[in-house]
Amino acid sequence: MLSQIVFETPAFRAKLAQALSIAAQALAGARRPYVAFTSGKDSVATAAIVHAVRPDVPLLWSDDELEYPEVVTYMEQLKELAGDQLIITLGWATHANWFRPWRDEPLWRDPFPGALFVGRDIDDWMGTRGYDLTFTGVRMEESRKRRDWLIQAGPLYSVKRGTGRRCCPLWNWTADDVWALIDGWGLAYSPVYDRLAEIGVPRLKQRVGPLPLTTRQILADGWPGLLTHLEDRYGKRWS
After folding, report:
1. Among 85, 110, 122, 160, which is most exposed with the fewest C-beta within 10 angstroms?
2. Average pLDDT, stretch 35-42?
3. Which residue in 62, 24, 26, 25 sits closest to 43, CA to CA?
4. Cα(78)–Cα(190) distance, rounded to whole angstroms?
5. CA–CA separation, 239 vs 233, rounded Å?
6. Per-residue pLDDT at 158
7. CB-CB contact of 13 with 6 (8 Å)
8. Is the pLDDT of residue 43 over 90?
9. Are 136 and 143 in contact (CB under 8 A)?
């Protein structure tokens, strides 16, 4: 298995040691850190790295209402395990220039019990609550813009808003590195990735995010019944 082969290589072991060191350095200067958790593979790996250094760091997931059913189930299971260590907020940002989560009745589904409606940028809100460090799963490989920024800023940098500091322990990791950690450490991940692989979506293009940002082809190939329900409710937005 490719992931297991990668996990055993000296190059990956060096990256893992560096990621743990970056997380430890960031945590040493933080009073109240948190992990921005998207349910995607990168945030799963980031949370595992952070918790290997400091297990009590909370996770925050912003629920965008139109989520893959598998993501909802995955987050329900995580919430049952993590309890109050997982903070769930209700998404507010507009997606694909038309969908505003949790605004239009009837809702697509019920929100998680205890989920908080914030109505603003989540990192800004966390900053007002005393959090002073945000861990994210941002990686260079994802885009040229992110690569250029991380080369300039490094994996731990200051920002003028939100919590004031951000840390990207996986900044120089590839998707293969991320999956090597997930498989090597036996981390639970969203089953959406397995379905995306089954329908032939290349690993580098596999994304788990709000459904308004998902292509019609992916929904038609992998979730045809869900696509029918979405278009019955919201029209031919997925064209």
Report:
1. 160
2. 97
3. 62
4. 11
5. 15
6. 96
7. no
8. yes
9. no
Residue with the two structure tokens 């992990």: 35
- Determine contact, residues 116/90, Cβ cutoff 8 Å: yes
The token duo for 110 is 């019920």
State the SS3 of the chain: CHHHHHHCCHHHHHHHHHHHHHHHHHHHCCCCEEEECCCCHHHHHHHHHHHHHCCCCCEEEEECCCCCHHHHHHHHHHHHHHHHHEEEEECCCCECCCECCCCCCCCCCCCCCCCEECCCCHHHHHHHCCCCEEECCCCHHHCHHHHHHHHHHCCEEECCCCCCEEECCCCCCCHHHHHHHHHHHCCCCCCHHHHHHHCCCCHHHCCCCCHHHCCHHHHHHHCHHHHHHHHHHHCCCCC
Give yes or no for a contact between 32 and 131, defined as CB atoms under 8 angstroms apart: yes
pLDDT of residue 34 exceeding 80, the answer is yes
Q: Provide the residue type at 18 as one letter.
A: Q
Q: What percent of the chain has pLDDT over 90?
A: 94
Instruction: Name the amino acid, one letter, at 120.
Output: R
Six token digits for residue 61:
């997931």
